[in-house]
Amino acid sequence: MDLVDGLPRVCTVPAVQSELRAGVESYPYLQRALDRIGDTIPVVALDELGDNAATNVASRLDPGETQAFTVAEIYNGTLVTDDGPARALARTTGVALTGSIGVLIRAVEDDRLSEATADRWLKRWIDETDYRAPSRDFADYR
Q: Which of 142, 53, 125, 141 has its CA nearest to residue 89?
């Protein structure tokens, strides 16, 4: 969360906040993310225009990705997701996109994380959470 929190203009959406709340019992580490939301990471709710735009993608994405995609599209932001269907939709619609590895790269480039730590975290994600990545070596992304 420190890395995401350090991104410029970072925000989240109500559906992601709800998804995190629902997951805390099974994944207690999500509480750290929830503690930042609303405090240092604002929650952006969709207005009527956003709700209408979200309706167009709701059949293709889950609620969190739908709202996040819509906010990124409306505000010309960057969608941060590792969700395959959301990434595919962003590519076809021209919405800027990054994922967990992109966040690691940005943190290393901004000197907020060492390359060795980024490599350790990537390997841990792959080994402990079944995270799928083209390479398990962070150096391959630099």
A: 53
One-letter amino acid at 90 equals A
Interacting residues of 13 by C-beta distance below 8 A, sequence separation 6+: 43, 44, 45, 46, 64, 67, 68, 71
pLDDT at 59 over 90: no
- Has residue 49 got a pLDDT over 70? no
Question: Rounded distance, CA 11 to CA 5, Å?
Answer: 9
Axis crossing angle, helix 63-74 with helix 14-23, rounded to the nearest 10: 150
In the chain, % of residues over pLDDT 90: 73
Residue-wise pLDDT for 66-103, tens only, equals: 999 999 999 999 999 999 999 999 999 999 999 999 99
Structure tokens at 77: 């932001």
Evaluate whether 113 touches 107 at the Cβ level (below 8 Å).
Answer: yes
41 phi, psi to nearest 5 deg: -115, 110
- Entry pTM: 0.87
C-alpha 121: how far from chain center: 16
Q: Terminus-to-terminus CA distance in the chain, angstroms?
A: 22
Token pair of 52, please? 């209408």
